[in-house]
Amino acid sequence: MSKATGKPPLVELRNMYVAFGGVHAVQNVTVDLYPGEVVGLVGGNGAGKSTLMRVLSGAHPADSGEILIDGRPVVITNPRAAKALGIETIYQTLALADNVDAAANMFLGRELMNRVGVLDDAAMEDETRKVMGRLNPNFKNFKTPCMSLSGGQRQSVAIARAIHFNARILIMDEPTAALGPAETTQVRGLIKQLKAEGIGIFLISHDIHDVFDLADRISVMLHGKLVGTVNKADVTTDEVLGMIIMGKLPSEVTQRELAQLHG
Amino acid sequence: MTQATEAAILKRPPRSVRQLLFSMEIDMRLMGMVLILALIWLGFNVMSGGIFLSSRNLWNLSVQSAAVAVMATGMVLIIVSRNIDLSVGSILGLTGYTMAMVQAVWIPTTLHLGFDQPYTWLIALAVGIALGAAIGAFQGYIVAYVGVPSFVVTLGGLLVWRGLVFEIQQGQTISPMDKTFSIVGGGLPNGAIGEWPSWIVGILCCAGIVYALVSSRRRRREYGFPVRPMWAVAVLSVSACVAILAAVWVANNYFWPPLLAQQYADAHHITEPLGGLLIPAGIAFPVIILLGVTLVMGFVATRQRFGRYVFAIGGNPEAAILAGINTRRTILGTFVLMGVLCAISGAIQTARLDSGVTSLGTNDELLVIAAAVIGGTSLAGGIGTIPGAVLGAVIMQSLKSGMIILKVDSPIQDIVVGAVLVAAVALDTILQRRAK
Are residues B277 and B307 in the same domain? Predict the structure, then answer.
């Protein structure tokens, strides 16, 4: 990993706090991500994974904490600012406007215009066809509103939107939750490919096997706090489950407690 | 469907109506509305013994539809973005009355500049439009930035703006209007553009439609996308041109009323031929204004970022925010546009009455919303078209006009219009559900 080279991480979230009213959704969480690395972010429902990532993608402001990109502190006040920093997000809800077609969604907020300031729909459709050709060659419904597309096709649109604009940092919130086995395999292949291209990926997933297959490091959250970050190579799935459920690091947990997880 | 079969279908001559419509890429909803309008027109024509489809009635119908249709184009964007504007009738009333005050009281009397100055109409119009934009911006600000539901804000506006009309001049009727200003009302002899200008407008419209169809096909072809077959472009072009030229022909077959023609003949020392002098009216100014508004609004809705954002917000407000769209500014923009369109409609109606009256535009919000909804705008947001709303306005006005010709009592007219509104939306809902 690039940690050895002493370079600053691509992204560092330091001591992040987010509260909703009186509820502390994220408390003093610090995570980082290096180029070409996949960091799995796991934890039960309400652990604060998605909230933490929404801060990074500009969808929600943090109450305190610091965000560093390439070692330099940045301020991300809205989604546009995050995108300008090369941070793209695939939301669990996909965040598609269902009443417009794939091209309109892919370029939403970043439309291509022609010389006289008119939307260039043909150029946008062309780009969309090219991206889809790589991503999901079976995708042909370029003029259909997204509401009429299948779950997998909708997912492709959301992924296409995230990778088309030369992202350096990709946040994927449950990218395979709505997909069938074949499509899941496709997304896994894509993640490996993007990683090889040097993109840093935060991967939020409920599926511990997904995370073990794809992630280099795993950060575990419980009740808004970071339990710890471990190298995948150093831990077993049971040990990670122990972190998720009991909030104990592999060094703190006993064999008996791990056995009880399966009880 | 794969691209190969898609292309194959487009190349083969169509076998069924469904395939035919598919290869022509026609908006089925709009097509359905045109059919319904045709049925209404034919029905009324038979029942009225041919009066309904006379040039005279169609000409009047076009003028009467224009005022509501102008506002309906703005209401589409408001409703598409999941809002509503109940205040349009009152904004129309206030802007119309203010324009009347400017030209009949403030410029001539308060400022001692006299009546019918060459600039009077322009200042009146500018003041009205600026006021409409300001009211729209004010309401839009409260909706978008303060976060009060648009239903509440514009319900308040409905009362406030109407109340202000009465406060300006103790509810008096203001008249007469500036001579130039009156033209936009479509009252003859000056309110229509005449025979040859009408043909020129018609031919320009035809050329524009053919150019748009051909150039968009060429552009898609350059990218290697599936395109409409040439015969479909030809069929669409020819039908559109026939419809436009037929409309111009109708407008040119409505002649000045005999009294006006006689006055004209006397003034120009022409001896009237037997049966009176026939002077074609041509397209009325309110219709020309509607044409311009429809073009601009259609362009804004489908060819501009702003319009795309309005639709995206209607489809999924959360997604729009996450895509980095400034949703508040966009919503504010829709209300400003609505205010401007109310003022334009206010000018048309004030000019038509040749006076400023306090009740102008009362209940218009219902007609405007109904026109948009009959025209295929979904109150759930995200769906609607500008041409659809214009057609919706024409359908509503056709029902009204037809029933007036048939001497149906006014309460019965309301019952029919109300029932048609609900039936139209119910039918649309059922068809949409079946399509899924």
Answer: no
